[in-house]
Amino acid sequence: VKREPGYDKEGGDWEYVQATNDGKIIMSGNSKDTNIRESCQKCHANMAERDYVFSTFYSARFGKKE
């Protein structure tokens, strides 16, 4: 989730969320949290030139009515 400027300057102001297949959130936070840094942000850091995003598309399932 892209957050307000200053949320996590070092991590591009992103909040990372990890969820189970049924949508239960099991971890969330920013790069200041060691678990988030190791589990999420570490990989996304390689995409800094793309605002830490691997892909810019989203599923129609979540983006519009079918």
Query: Mean of residue pLDDT?
Result: 85
**For the terminal residues, how far apart are their CA atoms?**
24 Å
Strand count: 2
User: Major beta sheet, specifics?
Assistant: 2 strands, antiparallel
Query: Percent helix among the residues?
Result: 10-25%
Structural class: alpha+beta
What's the Cα radius of gyration? 13 Å
| Percent in strands | 5-15%
Order of helices and strands: EEHH
What does this molecule look like?
This protein is of the alpha+beta class. The protein is 23% helix and 14% strand. The protein is built from 2 helices and 2 strands, in the order E-E-H-H. It has helices spanning 34-44, 60-63, and strands at 16-19, 25-29. Strand 1 (16-19) and strand 2 (25-29) form a beta hairpin.
Question: How would you concisely characterize the structure shown here?
Answer:
The protein is of the alpha+beta class and 66 residues long.
